[in-house]
Amino acid sequence: MRMKLTGSYNNLIYKVEETQGKTLLEVLIEDMGVSTRMIRNVKRQKALTLNGHVVSVSGKARKGDVIELKFIEEPHQIYPNDIPIQVIYEDEDLVVINKQTDMVAHPTKGHPSHTLSNAVRHYALSKGEDYKPRLVNRLDRDTTGIMIFAKNAYGQHIVSEEMKADRVEKYYRALVHGKFQIKKGEINEPIERESAESMKRIVRPDGKESLTLYEVEQELSNTTLVKIQLKTGRTHQIRVHMNHLGHPLVGDALYGSFERMAIDRQALHACEMRFKTPRNGEVTIVAPLPEDIKNAVQFLS
User: Which of 122, 196, 215, 293 has the fewest CB atoms within 10 Å, i.e. is most exposed?
Assistant: First the structure.
């Protein structure tokens, strides 16, 4: 954890305690965790100050120096839309929401507005913060639960690097067809597209390594509520692995479910995440089960 880092959503402040002869560039990379891409922007924008004076990254750091990195936002096309969102965690660098179903995450040509990013932009401005929301993790349109947005490129970089290094614990709850003979286990099967043109994924020998852990939480009449931990992050991984076991997600038409009475989407929810934040140590974020999955559990009991 980087205990010495302070500041706000639009800057990063670091007080040098020991230098060991480091340059400012070395301090930025090694002690503050700043990416090389951000450093290029810092140089261009003249966004680095040392004790209140604009400096270059080639200067030397001395004990007691105060380094400030300003996050200068480039022009962007994410405009605010007043859409209600449930914020379940927030700090200087991150805002985490409990995503509802049928929501697009980020503007596209086909969906340029009224996305979660537009909603977060409106939320930020309502609090007096002006930043471009940056996606850190993604969920399928009809999957609910934890979605992380970064308020600055620094927050996005730090948490994305944690994810790449498999240091982020990700848990889901899914309502699936059938009952499990083995109540707790793992699925270690490679995943790849069914064909080059298909959006559907399948287990196949030439696929990417994929590991899913699961544990039965509640058995219903002919369906089961399971808690799942993703150890890798392949597209549709939970949906593919559960279907491979013969337990497709309830409501998941793409992977073999014909249930439409209980729920009108795949019954999948990102319920818990544990990771180190850029400035505030480790956090555990929990998103309660949404009403439609609760109702489906009751309907199928």
Answer: 196
